Amino acid sequence: MVTRFYSAVGLVLIMALSGCGGGGSTIRGSDAAAQQTESDDYVIGAGDGLQVFVWGHDDLSTVVQVRPDGQISTPLVEDLQAAGRTPTELARDIETALSEYVRSPTVTIIIQQFVGEYGRQIRVVGQAAQAQALSYREGMTLLDVMIAVGGLSEFASGNRAKIVRRQNGQELTIKVRINDLLNKGDMEENVRMMPGDVLIIPESIF
Fold this sequence. Notes:
Blueprint (H helix, E strand, L loop, with lengths): L1 H17 L5 E5 L20 E6 L7 E4 L5 E4 L2 E5 L5 H12 L8 E7 L7 E6 L6 E3 L6 H7 L12 E7 L2 E7 L1 H7 L13 E4 L5
Parallel strand pairs: 1-10, 7-11
Antiparallel strand pairs: 2-3, 2-6, 4-5, 7-8, 9-10, 9-11
């Protein structure tokens, strides 16, 4: 019993010490869930399509696309920063700008085309059927990502895939076994994704 106790203590100390070194670390996909703390509020990005609805003022309501510089222009409001703001924050900004012309304006922002802020996209590179950048959605998992990119390509080595994540100023590598997830239904590999994740799927070695 005493031997088991000291063995357990030794294991904890080894794990603690290993987490203190270097600028990067690697963990298994099934261990990643405990390290996820990012906010799930949607942040507007360049390319997003927005419906700006001003209650009681159809002439001021419009549909716009966020420009590459991150700004939008609406009736009576020019060059307002939209990228990096949540829909609620942007609605309040437009209300403030319109208050010079309209008494107590009430604005609602509806996202019609999702692209998302660059830092909140999930990028899939390598041997996916349709490698691309995806807009992060609340609760998004690795399985959701694989469905969105059409699964693995013919030459993918899914069980050697990894997720590269920036967390607390460090680069974290999460090993995932996509073949086991898709073909065997191993849900321990269904890692929850985070904004800014890069999923790298290597090619099979013949």
